[in-house]
Amino acid sequence: MTNLAQLQQLFTIYQTPPFPADSIPVTVDGQVVAIANTGLTNRERALVATLQPAPAPTAPWPRFLLGQGPAPSTDPVRLIHFTTTIAQTGGDPETWLEAFTSLFAGPVSGFFATTNRGAIVEPAGELLIDRSDLAGMLDTLDGDFDTSTRAYIGRSWPTDADLPAMYAEEVQLAAGNTARISTLQESALAYYTQEARRHSRILLALRRLLRGSTSDMAPVITALYHNQGNLTATAKALYLHRNTLQYRIEKFQQRTGFALKNMDDLVLCYLLLQGE
User: Fold this and answer.
1) Domain end: 134, 164, 192, which one?
2) Which of 108-126 are b and which e, b meaning 16 or more Cβ less than 10 Å from the residue's Cβ?
3) Secondary structure string (H, E, C) spanning 170-187
4) Is the peptide bond prior to 18 cis by the omega test (within 30 degrees of 0)?
5) Strand 31-35 relative to strand 117-123: parallel, antiparallel, unpaired?
6) 3-class secondary structure, 55
7) Is 55 a member of any domain?
8) What is the C-alpha separation between 216 and 75, in angstroms, rounded?
């Protein structure tokens, strides 16, 4: 199966809408991209023709967000991106989407961009749902439709010419998350440092140091980070005695030189774990 990395070796790829008018939209790795049409050979055109075509939306919001139509509104909105298994279970995506949108207190719009991924367009205002409300919605949906659904809660943005690019970037942020519900704050560190982590010799060496020093510290580092370095809260989250946690942290410092009680050291160690 052709993936985005393979396509980028063969063609000029546009990943952020609006796409050039003469480009060829396709859906690859669950993402709508476009291939530059200029200079393609007959063989290359045949290859492009075999790819799954991007959906041709008719509703106003997906048309706008995919760079294919005007803005349906001038009011700020928030996007809630979802990935669901409704297509794999044999259910009806439109029925599933209608059920999802009906759970919101106010009027929202929803659409599928691919067979398993889409977004809810929520007017920005006082009625924005919170994380716990969304978790309850997903519980209801997955229980009723026998699906597995993840969501990424975007930030509120103005509805202007920049929103399609914001949408495309949020799609990428959402795609990199495996948590049931995620946000920009939780995703930013891993997403925006991925190139540096991939190519930095220093970070690669430090990652090997962490990996070779001890294999049981990843949950400790993650829990410490999420609890802002609070040992008592971290010990409770890990079902450990506080003295046991203290001992592990001290042994880790002896092996690596990283003092996890220091926030700078803790953040760096957490960063090194991203992508592991």
Assistant:
1) 192
2) bbbbbbbebbbbbbbbeee
3) HHHHHHCCCCCEEEHHHH
4) yes
5) unpaired
6) coil
7) no
8) 48
Rounded Cα–Cα distance for residues 135 and 151 (Å): 9
- In three-state secondary structure terms, 204 is helix
Query: Which distant-in-sequence residues (6+ apart) come within 8 Å of 17 by Cβ?
Result: 32, 34, 65, 66, 67, 68, 164, 165, 167, 168
Sign of CA dihedral 88, 92, 97, 100: negative
Query: Does the predicted TM-score (pTM) go above 0.85?
Result: no
205-219 confidence digits (pLDDT tens): 998 888 876 668 999
Q: What is the CATH number of the domain that holds 225?
A: 1.10.10.2840
Which pLDDT tens digit goes with each residue over 12-50?
888 877 777 777 777 777 677 888 878 787 777 767 766
Question: The domain spanning residue 139 has which CATH number?
Answer: 3.30.70
82 and 165 co-located in one domain: yes
Cβ atoms 64, 164 nearer than 8 A: yes
Q: How many domains does the chain have?
A: 3
Residue 250 lies in a domain: yes
Query: Are residues 41 and 65 both part of a single domain?
Result: no
- Based on the fold, state whether residues 186 and 64 are members of the same structural domain: yes
End residue of a domain, out of 164, 192, 220: 192
Of 273, 267, 263, nearest in space to 215 by CA? 273
Give CA–CA dist 41/221, Å, rounded. 52
DSSP 113: S
Residue numbers of the domain that contains 21 = 4-49
Q: Which residues are CB-neighbours of 91 under 8 A, at least 6 positions away?
A: 145, 146, 147
